Recover the amino acids of this structure.
């Protein structure tokens, strides 16, 4: 079984001819072997060596399975084997005392008031009979009666079945524990090791036998991966599979940039500076709007760092993707002007009705404001949520008609920048 510090298994069979009711249970590990005998007696109890229980709990603690789940798994395994091989009804209940190692087998009955209510005497019991077992039992409750168990009923096959079911259910319990550990980290950055690459994805080893899938669509353009490389990725989703949890990862999601900034910039991590919006074209360019929550703190300066040291560390992780940090403003005109940075803006007129920001820039700044293939204006529109109409001062002063010196960028309907 994957994970943990020991390879182990359980096996069960006859201990010998010393007693007709003795079954051996063996636990083998890479550090030793523990064997205990289980004696089934008419009182329906089985005593297991405490050292065996202790060793079992210790080994499974290494795998992160809680003690309660381990004991419950053992109980379910014995129940399953007993029902299957002793023709026992579904109301058989097995209980294991984790301290003493005592195993008890019961039949659980539903308590009814009159004989007319009994539909199946294997599952139901009159209240008068139930109170002979437990005087506090009332109608509608459940009463447990000790079951007489012998090795003839259980046998070697049942013991082996119990071992098989136990191993299977323990694997399921371990997978569930691991799933919960990783599911709680959705929306965070994790570091994995490149395990293998395919045409459609890169597979990362995240530890504990868990893999992360970084699909081609979630990879940064131009990035190359090598086996054994340590790689940061954003956890989009954790999925349950028959082989255990699988992480769906991304390096293109805007949440990846947000978490990187939280990791690199203490003021963002502690909440002194907050990120108000992110617009990203992964692998090429991003714009991040920040706001200071503390008087005297320069939000933009804190994010960029001295001589750009902080933002450069983020750019390096993003394989050279350019990151523009702008100040968020409540006034949409100021916000739009900031979002078009590094271009100089002369004037912004807001059309509330049509959700348009009409921007005037110097003639020499028009191409910078628009950006290569309209990227700067497009990202500014995504970031602010406004359709941005850019004109040069020379174009405005020219003929009233025509489109010379004019460009427009519109925010997408899904308003990606509203992070």
């Amino acid at each position: 079984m994957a994970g943990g510090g020991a390879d182990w298994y359980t096996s069960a069979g006859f201990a010998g001819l010393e007693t007709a009711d003795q079954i051996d249970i063996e636990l083998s590990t890479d550090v030793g072997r523990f064997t205990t005998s289980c004696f089934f007696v008419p009182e329906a109890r089985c005593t297991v060596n405490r050292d065996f229980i202790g060793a079992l709990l210790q080994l499974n603690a290494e795998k992160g399975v809680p003690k309660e789940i381990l004991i419950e798994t053992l109980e379910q395994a014995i129940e399953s084997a007993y029902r299957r091989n002793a023709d026992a009804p579904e109301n058989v209940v097995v209980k294991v005392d984790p301290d003493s190692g005592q195993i008890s087998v019961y039949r659980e009955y539903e308590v009814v008031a009159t004989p007319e209510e009994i539909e199946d005497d294997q599952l139901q019991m009159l209240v008068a009979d139930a109170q002979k077992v437990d005087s506090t039992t009332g109608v509608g409750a459940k009463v447990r009666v000790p079951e007489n168990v012998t090795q003839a009923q259980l046998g070697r096959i049942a013991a082996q079945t119990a071992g098989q079911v136990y191993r299977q259910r323990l694997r399921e319990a371990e997978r569930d524990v691991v799933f919960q550990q990783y599911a709680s980290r959705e929306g965070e950055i994790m570091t994995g090791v490149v395990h293998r690459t395919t045409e459609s994805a890169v597979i990362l080893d995240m530890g504990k036998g868990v893999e992360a899938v970084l699909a081609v669509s979630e990879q940064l353009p131009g990035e190359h991966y090598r086996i054994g490389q340590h790689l940061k990725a954003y956890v989009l989703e954790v999925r349950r599979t028959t082989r255990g949890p699988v992480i769906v990862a991304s390096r293109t999601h805007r949440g990846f940039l947000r978490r990187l900034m939280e990791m690199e910039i203490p003021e963002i991590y502690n909440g002194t500076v907050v990120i108000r919006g992110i617009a990203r074209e992964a692998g090429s360019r991003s714009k991040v709007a920040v706001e200071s929550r503390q008087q005297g703190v320069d939000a933009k300066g804190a994010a960029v760092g001295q001589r750009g040291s902080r933002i450069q560390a983020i750019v390096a992780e993003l394989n050279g993707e350019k990151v523009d940090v702008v100040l968020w403003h409540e006034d949409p005109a100021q916000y739009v002007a900031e979002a078009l940075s590094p271009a100089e803006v002369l004037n912004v007129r807001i059309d509330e009705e049509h959700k348009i920001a009409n921007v005037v820039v110097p003639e020499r700044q028009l191409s910078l404001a628009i950006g290569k293939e309209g990227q700067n204006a497009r990202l500014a529109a995504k970031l602010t949520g406004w359709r941005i109409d850019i004109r040069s001062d020379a174009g405005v002063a020219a003929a009233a008609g025509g489109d010379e010196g004019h460009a427009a960028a519109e925010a997408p309907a899904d308003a990606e920048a509203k992070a």
About this structure: Confidence is low (pLDDT under 50) at residues 1-45, 413-419.
